[in-house]
Amino acid sequence: MKWFIGILGLIAAFAGYLSYPSMRYQLTGLSPKAPAKPAVVKAPDAAPATAAQPAVTPPAVTPPPVAPPVIDLAKLTPAQLPAQVTLKVTTEVGDASGLKMKIDPGNRLTLVRLEGDQVVVSPGSGPFEGRVPVSGTDLMEQLQANPPVIAPEPTPTPTPDPAVPTPAAEATTPAVTPAATPSGDSQVPVTSPPATEPSTPVTPAATSGSGASTDPVEVMKANLRSGAIKEFTFEQVLEWKAAGDEVVNGETFQTGTVQYKGDTIFGVKTFDAKALMQNGKVVRWVWTKSNIEIK
């Protein structure tokens, strides 16, 4: 009887083992665990390809600074100079009467002319002039920014020596054939050329450099009456004078001067002006000392 009970116990245990998964879900609501999947071992990745080396850019080559052109002021003509310069230093200007005034740096003045290493400047109002070193203005900076074109010096033409005859002169010189001497004692009378009366020298008529014989004083009066300039008028003139011829920039002019009175910051003063005339007309008025044109 005991062995039968043992067999039943084994059968019940085996039946419970088989029905345990479904009974566990019904009793607890938990699904039976799925069998664990075997871990997948990945093969190590291939070694990364060697990165391409970056292109090496050579450093930029900076060109050396260009030296400013060397300008010889002695070779420049007045037309190649700037009309105005800016002062870097305080400059004193004055007129013929002894009046003087100081002009501060930063002001632009008219460039009248160059005298060696100095610049003659004028404020442009009346015959006031002053001298300042070239380094005291921006003259060189203006010339270096816009270098003037300097014409090359002309090649001198060799002068032929008059003592040495040229081949052309030898070719054109006619050969002198000696005259035949008559035979015997006969002589050929020599006839002298007829005497000619000396010609009367012709004296050229005196003409002015401008080629005009008009009275310069009347020409100046007519020009001022027409209102050709605004600096002064016909009524301001105190004295009229006719002057001689004068060469300005390679041209010959008939000149005349006037003295007039004008109002300045120092009161009423007397000034001198000059007229440059050609062919009986005033070409322009200038200040007598500086030759700066009067507008």
Structure explained in plain terms:
With 295 residues, this protein is an alpha+beta fold. Among the domains are: 76-145, Roll (SH3 type barrels); 216-294. Helix content is 17%, strand content 25%. The protein is built from four helices and eleven strands. The strands form three sheets. A five-stranded antiparallel β-sheet has the order 7-8-9-10-11. A four-stranded antiparallel β-sheet has the order 1-4-5-6, with no helix packed on it. A two-stranded antiparallel ribbon has the order 2-3. The longest helix has 27 residues, at 2-28. The chain is rod-shaped, with a radius of gyration of 56 Å. Residues 178-190 and 193-212 have low confidence and may be disordered.
Quick recap of the structure?
With 295 residues, this protein is α+β, with helices and mostly antiparallel strands. The protein is built from four helices and eleven strands, in the order αββββββαααβββββ. The strands form three sheets. The protein has a five-stranded antiparallel sheet. It has a four-stranded antiparallel sheet with strand order 1-4-5-6, with no helix packed on it. It has a two-stranded antiparallel sheet with strand order 2-3.
How much helix, percentage-wise, in residues?
10-25%
Number of beta-strand segments:
11
Q: Whole-Å distance between the termini?
A: 156 Å
- Structural class call reads alpha+beta
Overall geometry: rod-shaped
Regions with little confidence, pLDDT below 50 for 5+ residues: 178-190, 193-212
Mean pLDDT: 74
Rg over CA atoms: 56 Å
